């Protein structure tokens, strides 16, 4: 399968782009991931691991990949692009905007997905796209408690979807109201601590995006 086939837009509503918690209790995480996958179609899973220990990252990734392979879910890893071919992952998500996209594309070649988080900078998003990113993500969408980052207006997503070919992911501080506003303006909705930090993940997911869940 060509790398871009994983990110083909197959419906008019946004698809779910699931991001792992930064710290994972493996057995618990795998059980939760399997339950979520039974309730809703997941376009991909991004491993966003905070560990700096290479062996820990590799072991966790191998175990999670075993499940995502069985579920038919593409798996991306955050920043550790050299592990992508080593572990036969689908691609990498870069958190430094457009800065390393060209270098990573040269390293990985055309086989693997490269995504780039560009914060609220349309300029960085355009550069990332020009340098070979397969998708870009932007956020946050709601002012966070620390208040150190400007939100991305909904208009940026609608503009991007109208004029730029590669997909865009909405990421960061999402809520039900924002997701409803984004429903016709983004290709993917990134879900992370919006559900992982709650007591009932399945209920939280259904409350957050009822139109995209079943059961």
Brief rundown of the structure:
This protein is α/β, with parallel strands linked by helices and 215 residues long.
Structural class: alpha/beta
Span from first to last CA? 31 Å
Q: State the strand order across the main sheet.
A: 1-2-3-4-5-6-7-8
SSE order, one letter for each helix or strand? EHEHEHEHEHEHEHEHH
The main β sheet shows up as: 8 strands, parallel, barrel
Helix run count: 9
Please state roughly what percent of the residues sit in beta strands, choosing from under 5%, 5-15%, 15-25%, 25-35%, 35-45% or over 45%: 15-25%
Radius of gyration: 16 Å
Which spans of ≥5 residues are poorly predicted at pLDDT below 50? none
Record field, number of beta strands: 8
Share of helix among residues? Answer: 25-40%
Shape: globular
Mean pLDDT value: 90
Oligomeric form? single chain
Structure, explained:
Helix 1 (26-39) packs parallel to helix 2 (54-71). The mean pLDDT is 90. The protein has an 8-stranded parallel β-barrel with strand order 1-2-3-4-5-6-7-8, surrounded by 4 helices. The protein contains 9 helices and 8 strands. The chain has helices at residues 26-39, 54-71, 83-87, 101-108, 122-130, 154-163, 176-182, 193-196, 201-208; strands at residues 15-19, 42-47, 75-78, 91-94, 113-117, 135-138, 168-170, 188-191. It is 39% helix and 16% strand.
């Amino acid at each position: 399968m060509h790398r871009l086939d994983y990110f083909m837009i197959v419906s008019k509503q946004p698809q779910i782009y699931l991001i792992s918690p930064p710290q994972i209790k493996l057995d618990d995480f795998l059980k939760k991931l399997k339950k979520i996958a039974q309730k809703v179609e997941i376009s991909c899973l991004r491993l966003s691991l905070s560990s700096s220990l290479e062996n820990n990252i590799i072991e966790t990734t191998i175990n999670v990949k075993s499940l995502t392979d069985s579920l038919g879910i593409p798996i991306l890893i955050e920043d550790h692009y050299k592990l992508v071919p080593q572990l036969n992952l689908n691609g990498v998500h870069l958190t430094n905007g457009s800065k390393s996209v060209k270098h990573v594309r040269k390293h990985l070649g055309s086989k693997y997905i490269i995504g780039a988080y560009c914060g609220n900078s349309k300029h960085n998003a355009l550069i990332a796209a020009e340098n070979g990113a397969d998708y870009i993500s932007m956020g946050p969408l709601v002012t966070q408690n620390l208040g150190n980052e400007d939100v991305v207006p909904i208009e940026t997503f609608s503009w991007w979807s109208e004029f730029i070919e590669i997909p865009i992911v909405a990421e960061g501080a999402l809520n039900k109201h924002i997701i409803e506003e984004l429903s016709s303006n983004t290709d993917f909705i990134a879900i992370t601590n919006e559900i992982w930090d709650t007591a009932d993940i399945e209920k939280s997911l259904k409350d957050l995006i009822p139109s995209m869940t079943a059961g």
